[in-house]
Amino acid sequence: MEEEKRDWYLTISGKSEGTYRDKASKFIANALPVFSEEEAKSALDRIRKNYYDANHHCYAYRIGYENFIYRIQDDGEPSGSAGKPIYGQILSKELYDVLVVVTRYFGGTKLGIPGLIHAYRTAAKEALEKAVIVESVMMKEYSVQFEYPLMNEVMRIIKESGCKIIGQTAGDQYEIRFQIRKRQVSFVESKMQRIRGVTLR
Question: Is the model's pTM score more than 0.90?
Fold first, then answer.
């Protein structure tokens, strides 16, 4: 499928962990799904509290798909030696909505920048290789309002396109709230707009 028409992306289903050791330094990688920068910050805070006695908590994340945001953080390590190789592993797996934090316990011997790059990359890679990678489908939410006699026509379109109904209300007009897979948006919009008396929002 062409990239611009794709309505799914890869992410991870839950938390996973990887470890790496070099010259008494220990690197613990935690990978987990996050869906906002606030969620990423909360997850990072939890990890920092979990490993409160560690020397560094370096991380990278990529959130969103079409207009994604990303961030990398070396947390006191030499510039480019930690966050960038962690982010490189996220890119290599083509993942979105994911945060990878690599916590370092310094073992007393400096590893040098090449050694640090290798260590952070390896720990992140192990965590992501242990993760369960899943497809996440992009959905769009709509509200359709109509008079009750139009119920059968509206419901037929909803069923044909595989919409997921998330709410219904009955008042002066009937309202159905539903989610639809992005690739079906044009189909649903064109069908609904052909029915006189239907308002789609």
Answer: no
